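User: Show me a protein chain along with its predicted structure.
Assistant: Here is one chain, sequence first, then structure tokens.
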Amino acid sequence: MKILVIQQKMIGDVLTSSVLFELIKKKHPNYKLHYLINNHTSAVVENNPLIDKIIFFSPKVEQNYWELFKFLWGIKKQKYDAVIDLYGKISSALVTLFSLAKIKVSYHKKYTSFIYTDAIKRLKQAENGLSLALENRIKLLQPLGVKFEAIKPRIYLSEKEKELAKMFLKNNGLELEKPILMVSVLGSSSSKTYPKPYMATLIDAIGKIDNIQILFNYIPAQIESVKAIFKACRPETQEKIFLSVYSKKLRDFIGVTSQCMALIGNEGGAVNMAKALGVSTFAIFSPKLNKENWFGVKEASKHQAIHIGDFEENISDPSTDIKMKYLKMKPEYIIPKLDIFLNKLL
């Protein structure tokens, strides 16, 4: 059987959805599995031996009707037996429709359900201790006769990539014998970013650890905000921060993260990548997000997740007053949990 799995847009989504390949291959090792993703997300599935082919839904295809038509025609020529559409938007529905596959699976939505042979309703609560994001994805395998199994995404790094990461860190003055901590100091947007003064206080708490070496995860466009957080830290903490150590490519960042004791900070793609590398994480969730979507109780032995709901009951509409809700997540509530988390690792 030849199957196309569609997951466009975000890096974390592409990584999380990659669990489907492991489950399908485990039951049907001879199935041919293709993955349709956006170009900028490929780093998290590079070298994955369970994916037979990666197909890119490029900006060129998205922005030009003629290119889109040629792309859809190419999908039709592949003669897929099944399509699993995890994205569930108009673009992926078109791909599914043009595939002419006998089995077409996606989440149930009123405006697209007629396209699919199996429109699966999402779970509202996790049933097996994983995150809702994982459990709902695995649920889409039911029409293929693949049973639920508690697994997690994996990133496949080569030994060469690991050695290059070690060399990069050494060349930038870090000592691999001492603990290295990656901090996601900023989120992907202001509504997903823990207040900067609060973050500096958390970093100061981390800085009290003997021999700790701190790296910041950020993109070039965020450098001024990153510097502001750095300057808000105590001088003795600043001495332990390697601010200039920055990975230009996502795959390089993944390699560097694999050498870290843990990743701490704003919840997002970096947290998902660290988990997929087997690196412990301490994630601070935006008040507007449902923590259960991206954190399962079975993860609690290795990972921690913090949300305003952990400190305050009867929260009003999560999508409103995000800034005010963030301000209620004071460092003094988080640091005791952070200390316990770090002490287990040291």
